[in-house]
Write a structure and sequence with these properties.
It is a single chain. By secondary structure, this protein is an alpha/beta fold. The protein has three domains: 88 residues, Thrombin, subunit H (Beta Barrel), CATH 2.40.10.170; 283 residues, Rossmann fold; 176 residues, no CATH class. 34% of the residues lie in helices and 20% in strands. The protein is elongated, with a radius of gyration of 33 Å. The chain starts with a strand and ends in a 6-residue tail after the last helix. The relative contact order is 0.15.
Amino acid sequence: MIGKVVFISDSLAHVKIDESKVATNLMNLHIVFEEGERKILAEVSDISNEIIKAHFLGEIIEGKFFQGIIKKPSLNANVRMIRSEEVALIVGEDNNQSVLLGRSPLYDDHKIRVDINSLFSNHLAIFGNSGSGKSWGVARILQNIFEMEKFVPYKANVLMFDTFGEYHSAFKDINDKNSNYNFKFYSTASEATPRERLKIPMWLLNAEDVAILLSVTEHGQLPIIERMLKLVKVFAQDDEMANKYMNHLIAKAIMTILYTNQTASSKRNDVFSILASCSTREFNLEAPVAGVGYVRKFRECFLIDNKGNFTESILLTKYVSSFIDDSMEAYEPEKETMYGLEEMEKALNFTLISEGLLRNDKSYNDAIALKVRLHSLLVGKYSKFFENDEYVTKEQYISGIISKQGKKAQIINFNLEDVDDWFGKFVTKFYSRLLFEFTKGLQNRATIPFHIFVEEAHRFVQDDLDKKLFGYNIFERVAKEGRKYGMLINLISQRPVDISETVISQCSNFVIFKMNHPRDLEYIKKMLPNISAEVVEKQKTLQPGTCVAFGMAFKVPLIIKMNPPNPAPSSGNAEIFKNWGVPVEK
């Protein structure tokens, strides 16, 4: 017996220590209040010279542990240390459905296991300071999963958005350990091979994806993007109907200008400006325009007489109006086809001359801003990520991501080390949206689960403009709805305060490594009502590679010491002594 119970509240008990019988440090250890057949488990959270304070955690009933208690123990309850067989109840069972997480530094390195369903069928957050062991912990957990002897997770789909390229070394040789497993690598580095280079099909982007890619900030730009996407699908067909549609748009734009009250020279300048960005074989400055017994070049129709009028105004009007066909506005191509940034820019140019934009200064300025951004993307270093050799459907593209040379790939690493944050955010949001829609559309719900690991999540999973512009944020949608479709998100971050509150609030499991920043600690306490002050205090003194884990997968908050991953991710500090040193001449 440890001592006598002297005080009991709703969640706390004070026990006066029997110094003659207690000769060990009880801090953070578990004790049992035993009263007849009842066994109530508590954790020691504070110790003074005479009193220990313990928080109630749950009850042991017929050899099983249940969280929470209904009836408190009495002051006459016997208080003792937890027994070894009872420790096993709270650190997880050893079976083919559980995975090893690490060892307990409090209980003689007792192995700590967790049920795979409880941990991986819910969203997970992994927080900790830089150097606290987050990357090691993630690598170790996944390595333990793929090193299980009684379970082969062949159909796992783990997508890692690797901001610093840390995880390649940890998983690249996974096939050597088990031929059933394969690691796939996508890189944003300029020296990446064609097979490894990140490739995103433009035709799989929806309006929201394009808006994120082009850094849209105004609602008025969204209809422009939607119109552009409709036109690019038509123009990508590269057939007679596409040419007819382009002629229709150019003709309507020119007729709009001809019927304005501008001077003839101003009208001519506006028409020539249209043809500079949008032209076809029927509409260009050298196109032949046939009159009665003569032919003029299109530009010659804009010669101005001494009265300030076009000399061929009747011929011009008749020629241009002959291409207007309002039925084209309802035309939709029968099949999808591939297109890239060049086709997108062409479609935007035609969108820019469309009726409703040309004479509207606000809409015109919004479109010009999009045009500048799209052209910068086209001629910039990121254009190579949108180069594709053949058309693929959404299903074919996803199938290609999770396969490697005809075999199933379980871990897919996207190395975002060589791109800026805005592009990295686009990439993570695009794949999250694509996979969410795919899993949501499966006939048999949640039969193909995907786990997304977002390293440096505070840089991407933010409370940004998406909700204001689109009415939703894809990460928040995945956090709120993805679990039931098998779309799970795993956040890895050293700054949880910068992550969307909605996403964190939907996480059911937490692995917290050492954190010291007051704002982050306060944020965690505020956002997670089930975290106690004791848990927050515990993590302040943790060693690198040691964490506090709690949530649905854990019966009680546990301190876990993880074994170093083998091989380790490339997340260590620089070897200053080694790199500074030079030979000393004697």
